[in-house]
Amino acid sequence: MKIAFCTDLDKSVVVANCEKRGWVQVGPEDEWNIYWAGTLTCRSLFSVDSGYRMNDNQMINHFPNHYEMTRKDLLVKNIKRYRRDLEKEGNSLAERWDAKYLHLDFIPITFVLPADYNIFVEEYRKAPQSTWIMKPCSRSQGSGIFLINKLSKLKRWSREANKNMLQPQLAKECYVISRYIHNPLLIGGKKFDLRLYVTVTSFRPLKAYQFRHGFCRFCTVKYDSSVAELDNMFIHLTNVSVQKHGEEYNALHGGKLSVQNLRLHLESTRGKEITENLFDQISWLIIHSLKAVQPVIATDRHCFECYGYDIIIDNKLKPWLIEVNASPSLTSTTANDRILKHKLIDNILSLVLPPSGFPDVRWNKIVSPDALGDFELLIDEDLINQEEINGDRHSKSSYYRWK
User: Fold this and answer.
1) Does 240 share its domain with 383?
2) How many whole angstroms separate alpha carbon 281 and alpha carbon 268?
3) Which of 151, 180, 209 is at the close of a domain?
4) Comparing C-alpha atoms, which of 86, 297, 325, 106 is closest to residue 201?
5) How confident is the model at residue 163, as a pLDDT?
6) pLDDT, tens digit, for every residue of 35-85?
7) Is residue 86 part of a domain?
8) Whose CA is closest to 136, among 91, 172, 180?
9) How many folded domains does the chain comprise?
10) What SS3 class is residue 119?
């Protein structure tokens, strides 16, 4: 049977990959097998009002409440709850030293405003003049972000936001405020972050895979932490949607460096063992961020999801999770970008389909090594359970390295 695919994204990389497989494009009202949808389309499809019920041969690229992972305030709330739950269980993962988590300290200190305003002020007063970064909870691409180092600036923002309450269209937004990573690792004097792709095929049991070909996104202006440059977003924000408007932006390489080249750079400057440890920490961070949302995600066998992880590395080579994106950009800014994103979509489709190549939700979603492509298995709880049942405790499990 021919596979029918549907998409509401105007992205040639999705259509080209589906057509290359001989699939037929149809409209949302037609019978489809795979729907590569925007988050709003997915939400309306899963809403109670839609009354839509998917059959066994249909798949869609978002979980119903993916926003538990990708809304900045909800991600922070879920990670904090995950830590508390592990603490109550007496789990050593939640061990603390001097009020800091030893193993789960991978997000900067963060509060949600306006709800946590008083707690934030208390924290701020422990280190006055420290820099904090404000982000709207539900926006993306660097929109609405600013830095503060004085409470007076926050109070001014709050007053202006309160004025907007009189205009419903400008109603007060929910923001997160996080301690700014003031000591980012620099290359060529410039700040950068990592964009990594993680595909989840199931949350219960958890099955997640990391794509090998992520990239670094660089600022166009050299890093300067002085108060005078606090408002210069070309120094502080790595988003391409911000940096492409800078005078120093180079359209040829798009301010991007591959993860492979970052590895080579770090191995030559910091050593192989330290570099390996950094990437192990990144895998640890990703797995535990997924475990943090695992209890609240509405698991659905028809769903899979590709998340875009944004991670900053500080100059001590500690990775920090900044945010997770539900619809990481599929727009290509360079030739290398186009190759990477084409391969990403191709590999995702191979990953989520059973060996028959035809969608079937009854499949156990245990992926053969041949179907992984450039994905690496991070965790598959089905395979962990199988190993434990077989009593194979001494095997160097290729299925789950981060127990």
Assistant:
1) yes
2) 19
3) 180
4) 297
5) 61
6) 999 998 988 888 878 878 899 999 999 999 999 999 999 999 999 999 999
7) no
8) 172
9) 3
10) helix
Contact 38, 63 (CB under 8 A): no
Let me know whether 211 and 175 are in one domain: no
**In a 3-state reduction of DSSP, which class is residue 8?**
coil
Q: Which tokens sit at 19?
A: 């057509």
- For residue 396, what pLDDT band results from cuts at 50, 70 and 90? very low
Beta bridge pairs of residue 194: 216, 311
What average pLDDT is seen over the chain? 89
334 and 373 fall within a common domain:
yes
CA distance 320 to 80: 15
Max CA pair span of the chain: 65
Residues 206 and 176 in one domain: no
pLDDT at 398 over 60: no
Return the H-helix or E-strand segment holding 233. Answer: helix 233-236
Write down the residue that tokens 């066998």 correspond to: 301
Final residue belonging to a domain, choices 150, 180, 210: 180
Please answer whether residues 254 and 337 qualify as being in contact, where contact means their C-beta atoms are separated by less than 8 angstroms.
yes
pLDDT at 107 over 60: yes
Among residues 394, 397, 363, the alpha carbon closest in space to that of 380 is found at 397
Query: Which is higher by pLDDT, 399 or 349?
Result: 349
Strand order in the sheet with 132-136: 110-113, 175-179, 132-136, 146-148
What was the pLDDT predicted at 172?
Answer: 59
Task: Tell me the residue range of the domain where 152 lies.
Answer: 109-180
Regarding whether 253 and 121 lie in a shared domain, the answer is no
Say if residue 374's pLDDT is above 90. Answer: yes
Residue 142 pLDDT class (50, 70, 90 cuts): low
Indicate which CATH number applies to the domain containing 199: 3.30.470.20
For residue 303, the 8-state DSSP code is B
Cβ 131 vs Cβ 225: under 8 Å:
yes
> What is the distance, to the nearest Å, from the Cα of residue 39 to the centroid of all Cα atoms in its chain?
15
**Which DSSP category does 226 fall into?**
S
* Inter-residue contact 10 to 38 (CB < 8 Å): no
Rounded CA-CA distance 269/358 in Å is 47
* The one-letter amino acid at 222: K
Is pLDDT at 199 greater than 90 in this prediction?
yes
